[in-house]
Amino acid sequence: MSAQTPVWFIAAASSGFGKYIALEALKRGHRVIASARSTSRISDLADAGAVTLALDVTWPQEQIEKVAKEANDKYGYINHLVNAAGYILVGAVEETSPKEDYDHFNTNVFGTLNTCKAFLPYLRSTPGHRTISNFGSIGSWVGGAGYALYSGTKFAISGISEGLRAELAPLGIAVTVVEPGYFRTGFLNASARVSAAKTIQAYEDSVVGSVRRRIEETDNRQRGDVEKGCKVIVDILTREGVAEGKEVPERVVLGSDAPGVVRGKLERTEALLKEWEGVTTNTDHE
């Protein structure tokens, strides 16, 4: 790690992982620049010692770039960029409108992408250890009824992060995608999740309706402790504590419930390949 005090910029720090990563970094004596759509939403982080800036990741790129410059000007460098903005859109694919779909991708995918673009010139010019962490999900691995659009955004984030990692590794910047399982944040709160404006009874009587009800039942009962999770994330990004002596990994599959989801997908995919390989691979020119 650089001899300089690490500087973090955290997009979407008003709650959940963004907030608790900020608090964990501050606890370690690091400098934190926290952002939210309104700085009034992160006044508690300002009280804890963070610099706070307004940022909506769906703003035009020129505005995001101005925030990036202002953030870099605070201390003259940035070591860690954390992209934690995102929400879940609940509904069957037929139920969600094109506008709802676009807004979902605009926040979860394009917001992360554009924030990376805006901050990369400053990260590239910072010496020492630097990271970008983007938030995927166990939904990056498995799509499901009632949250297909959300999974689509998280599949995209994990794929983009893998490619970005390959691009930035030669420049000394480590990129990882954090893929949490169920953590007790406000993510599933009624005030945070977005449901399709239209519901279709045929889906309400099927698995989609069951998923809607299960989300409500799961809210505030998730197994994962976000503060413990963020301590692990900060350890990994700074290569300290439980991550001492290790490199920043390609992905952080976070939470006791997450590895089982990934292993299940790997097993199903391997079984599918074995079943169809003799058919689907017999496609070359003679």
Automatic annotation (TrEMBL):
GO terms for molecular function: oxidoreductase activity. Belongs to the short-chain dehydrogenases/reductases (SDR) family. It comes from the Eukaryota. This is NAD(P)-binding protein. Keywords: NADP, Oxidoreductase. SUPFAM superfamilies: NAD(P)-binding Rossmann-fold domains. InterPro entries: NAD(P)-bd_dom_sf (IPR036291), Sc_DH/Rdtase_CS (IPR020904), SDR_fam (IPR002347), SDR_oxidoreductase (IPR051911). PANTHER family: SHORT CHAIN DEHYDROGENASE, SHORT-CHAIN DEHYDROGENASE_REDUCTASE FAMILY PROTEIN.
